[in-house]
């Protein structure tokens, strides 16, 4: 378990979703919006290519915060995110975070998910039980 | 054109979802979580769960279906062509385990306009078969050029 003191960085989570990840996530989540699984459709609606599900990236954010708190799924109490940049398959996603506040048996962690300079999830805040 | 706000406060019919062990495993594998409590009954029980437990974000699987009718409601009147999922918050209580029957209700919390964009905020509340709250979600959709 990471040392969750104020100002501490949580261990970075780095994942490179393969080409077919959006299909597997669509099946797992039930979200078959074609912008995630059909590059042709995505291009027809003005996107550069098919894009990752925002909630998949939120899932990675939840995973990073939960792992930082020791891995018990009960540790994650609250997670709030804003979706901004679009995520692309076959590109590394790095989830990083810093402990903002510790108190009352919980730690609040500021989290960001990014592909290079493109912050796909920002202003995210996770509350975990210590 | 100003946003329509008459749907604020409206609630939609409850949906029910029965959580299954293999569905939990499928979700966990998709997001790369390998904790055995999400796959193995023995490991889950040993860790104090009733059965194989879902990762927290599995909540999208059982709570999103309640949101569908809300998003497509003409009274809400969202323009899907210009819509993005702008923000999301979940607050977890009781863990969701295999065999749980989870009911979810959706409600429109807010509709407002800011900087030429429409903000549509919905809340889902999910409870299990014992009446215990499992998760509360706040879903913010943003529509450009309202």
Q: Could you explain how this protein is built, in words?
A:
The complex is a heterodimer of chains A (130) and B (146). Chain A is 26% helix and 37% strand. Chain A is α+β, with helices and mostly antiparallel strands. The mean pLDDT of chain A is 95. Chain B has a domain of 99 residues: Hotdog Thioesterase (Thiol Ester Dehydrase, Chain A), CATH 3.10.129.10. Chain B has a five-stranded antiparallel sheet with strand order 1-3-4-5-2, with helices on one face. The radius of gyration of chain B is 17 Å and the shape is elongated. Chain B starts with 10 loop residues before the first strand and ends with a strand. At the A-B interface, helix 1, helix 4 and strand 2 of A face helix 1, helix 3 and strand 2 of B.
Annotation keywords:
heterodimer; A: 130 residues; alpha+beta; Thiol Ester Dehydrase, Chain A; 5-stranded antiparallel β-sheet; 4 helices; B: 146 residues; 3 helices; 5 strands; 21% helix; elongated
How would you briefly describe this protein structure?
By secondary structure, chain A is α+β, with helices and mostly antiparallel strands. Chain A has four helices and five strands. Chain B has a domain at 11-19 and 55-144: Hotdog Thioesterase (Thiol Ester Dehydrase, Chain A).
What is the mean pLDDT of chain B? Answer: 95
Number of helices of chain B: 3
- Widest sheet of chain B: strand order? 1-3-4-5-2
CATH architecture of chain A: Roll
DSSP E strands of chain A, number: 5
What topology emerges from the helices and strands here?
The complex is a heterodimer of chains A (130) and B (146).
Chain A: E1 9-15, H1 21-29, H2 34-37, H3 39-44, H4 54-68, E2 76-83, E3 93-103, E4 106-115, E5 118-129
Antiparallel strand pairs in A: 1-3, 2-5, 3-4, 4-5
Chain B: E1 11-18, H1 21-31, H2 41-46, H3 59-71, E2 83-92, E3 101-114, E4 117-127, E5 133-144
């Amino acid at each position: 378990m990471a040392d969750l003191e104020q100002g501490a960085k949580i261990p970075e989570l780095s994942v490179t979703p393969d080409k077919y990840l959006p299909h597997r996530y669509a099946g797992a989540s039930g979200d078959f919006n074609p912008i995630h699984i059909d590059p042709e459709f995505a291009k027809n609606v003005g996107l550069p290519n098919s894009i990752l599900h925002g909630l998949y990236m939120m899932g990675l954010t939840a995973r990073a915060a939960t792992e930082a708190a020791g891995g018990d799924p009960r540790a994650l109490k609250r997670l709030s995110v804003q979706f901004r940049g679009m995520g692309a398959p076959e590109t590394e996603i790095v989830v990083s975070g810093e402990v903002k506040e510790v108190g009352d048996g919980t730690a609040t962690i500021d989290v960001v998910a990014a592909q290079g300079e493109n912050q796909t999830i920002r202003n995210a805040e996770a509350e975990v039980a210590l | 054109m100003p946003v329509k706000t008459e749907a604020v406060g409206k609630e939609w019919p409850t949906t029910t979802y029965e959580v299954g062990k293999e569905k939990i495993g499928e979700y966990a594998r998709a997001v790369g979580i390998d904790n055995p409590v999400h796959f193995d009954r023995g490991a889950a029980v040993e860790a104090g769960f009733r059965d194989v437990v879902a990762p927290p974000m599995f909540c999208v699987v059982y709570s999103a279906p309640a949101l569908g009718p809300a998003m497509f409601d003409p009274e809400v009147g969202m323009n899907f062509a210009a819509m993005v999922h702008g923000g999301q918050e979940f607050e977890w209580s009781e863990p969701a385990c295999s065999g749980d029957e989870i009911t979810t209700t959706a409600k429109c919390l807010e509709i407002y306009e800011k900087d030429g964009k429409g903000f549509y905020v919905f809340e889902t509340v999910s409870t299990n078969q014992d009446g215990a709250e499992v998760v509360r979600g706040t879903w913010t959709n943003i529509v450009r050029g309202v």
